[in-house]
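Let's practice the habit of predicting before peeking. Look at the sequence and jot down your guess about where helices and strands might fall. Then scroll down.
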Amino acid sequence: MSSSPLVVPTGFVTRRRAFLQSAGAATLSAAAVALIAGCESQAQGMGKGTDTMADVNILNTALGLEHEAINAYQLGAESGLLQKPVLDTAVLFQSQHKEHRDALVATIKKLGGTPVAEKSKSDYAKALNAGSLKSQADVLHLAQRLERGAANAYIGVIPSFHDPALAQVSARLAADETMHWTALTSALAEALPQKALAFGA
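Done guessing? Here is the structure:
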């Protein structure tokens, strides 16, 4: 099994950075976070005075990242390179990204926004350099990098919230991504970080 690392596409890094920068410029309102968490009753009455379009823009950036992750796992599953039980795990992780996507889409719509459209699979294949995937390890390294980037992005927006309880939603998303990264790292038989605070820096 090859363990040679893949080069992360420039666009991938730029999109993650844009998510963090946009979050710093315009934080999600308490109403938006409550909607993501499924607390519609809590969201009512919170929306006054918030910048709804700023919320929608941040959520759409996050949604774009989830579309990318879903398609990355799809490309991996269809590549024929993944063996069981790794294939089953990849499908599980993809299903969790779909749950993230659905929560973001529902929230964007409730805020009166239009969810960003998913691109074609061929667009994601090109952006993620899918043609370079030659082994199971290649697929896992790509997924590993995407998961770490997603975890860091969700951790990065947590300080933007004024109410620590509302930041929990972003932390839960980050926890999912970190769990995915850990499982992928284990599947690659790679060492876990030796020092604490390995994420979010």
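How did you do? Confidence is low (pLDDT under 50) at residues 1-14, 19-27, 45-49.
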